Task: structure prediction
Amino acid sequence: MILAFIGLANDEPGMLSLVGGIAALLALVAIPLATGLLVNALLGDQKRHADALPGLRWPAANEICPRCGEVNFMPLFCCRHCGRLSWVWLAEVCAFAITAAAVVAISVPDYNAPAWWKDVGMLLHLLGALLAATAAFAVFIGTAQVWQLQPRLPKEGRVFRSKVDQMALVGATLVPVLCTALLVLSLF
Ligand SMILES: [Zn+2]
Result:
């Protein structure tokens, strides 16, 4: 990430920006993965429902909830039946959105660079912005669904039972706002 910062801030063609670009790509993979592992470790061992298949299959059209065993159609981050939240997925998508938006925000095109370099930079810039926007949108829809589901869930499945869960969900809800701010900033 630090390499990405140094490399992308220097937007002339050359080794340094190349290293920066590669570092940015690595950060896009490594930061969400590390976040996912961290959240997984924080959650500890979770009991899985006997019907649930091992491993993560999101985005799957039909997914069996690991807690209640009910089938969810196109779940984002939350089981519609018992309210189980896929914290790991939520954290990974959030981390990806923030990383992509941050990379886009710090890679400012250099107007003195040769035309071909500006074109390549512009293309990568747009691609990064698109990825960040897509991930942020998924988080937005996902968290909105979680909030909207709360009153309909059984009492023991609601997120309001735990202060930590509540804080985490509020944090995730703010991620799209942060990403939008970063992307808007990158326009100037
Ligand atoms: Zn469930």
About this structure: The pocket of zinc ion is lined by residues 65, 67-68, 70, 79, 81-82, 84 (CB under 6 Å). Residues 2-45+76-185 form one domain. The chain has one domain: 2-45+76-185. The mean pLDDT is 79.
